[in-house]
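Issue: ligand-bound run for EPU - logging full I/O for the record.

Environment: standard queue, default settings, no custom constraints.

Inputs:
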Amino acid sequence: MAITIEKQVELSSYTTMGVSAKAQYVARINSVGALVEALNWAKNNKVGILVLGGGSNVLLPRYFEGLVLLVGLKKKDIIHEDEYSVELLIGAGENWHEMVEWTVEKGWIGLENLALIPGSVGAAPIQNIGAYGVEVEEYITSVQYLHVETLDLIWIDRDKCNFAYRNSIFKDELKNKAIITEVQFKLPKNAQLRTDYESLGYFFSQHGIHNPSQQQLFDAVIQVRQSRLPDIQTQGSCGSFFKNPLLPSEQIDRLSTRFPDIKTYPMPGGYTKVAAGWLIDKAVGKGFRKGQVGTYEQQALVIVNHGGASGDEICEFASLIHSKVLEMFKISLEAEVQIISKNSKDI
Ligand code: EPU
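Outputs:
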């Protein structure tokens, strides 16, 4: 057998939340062949699997009974280029921010608003990562995955990925069934930059920048993120812990009479999205803390590990926030972070 199965591996450094977590078995995956072997091994040994990309959106249990796959599939190919656009084929194990940096250096437009999002390229389509007015679905053309049961390698077009706000087919119909191996992107060479997000507009006016270049936009996104979100190198977090809830506009209209400064975004079809950060800020505040877990000092939607908190403590803290928001606003927040159970076959 070409792959090595390691036993009793400490996982805290493979996730951004930094909770202490151990896996019964771990395999490091550098090729599709190795992935197939690892899946066969898990099947023969009757253990569940868990795929870790950048570990930036998962909360692990103290002990995971099963096989953790550390997907390190690398590839950075230009598969087509003309004067208008470029098409890229990127391995699931590539680092997301490094890829964005490369596209900005080349002057290919689109991903600069998604700078500094932690995690891997393979994780990006799963929750359709988004920031500062852009969602990755706009630039993905197709996704390749390995079907865990049939072991077929399948390409799925973006139209079939059911992309939605922080959601896709990979969190739904294909949950536990697909391991993303490659992602194909198409980026324009000439396109309008997306500078309209409130906090970016504020940043540009503060810095006297009128017509930002792509590089200036990229730099602004990095600076705004750094000022609002914790540095995962020094503080454990998973970014936003909950999704911004989408609710019938009538419900929000009723709330706005009680809370006139509620932060909302009108959406199509009679729905309104509410800033969960604002709700949590009102319910418990920024920098609210219980033991070693708390809301971040600059952004209440982000839960941080002040050091040594277990996955269970973080879950308990998240439940407390959930109930405080429910009590105050009658809104039930949904976690954006994937909470993994101890022998979950979750991927
Ligand atoms: N707000 C508060 N108090 C807070 C936090 C936010 O009043 O403690 C208000 C802000 O002032 C703003 C509004 O709520 O008016 C929205 O806040 P922000 O612009 O920070 O964005 P967000 O909706 O909280 C989303 C994404 C982030 C992404 C930012 C920027 C979700 C769940 N989160 O946050 O993504 O970086 O927009 O585009 O959609 C992530 O998914 O992990 C993540 C960090």
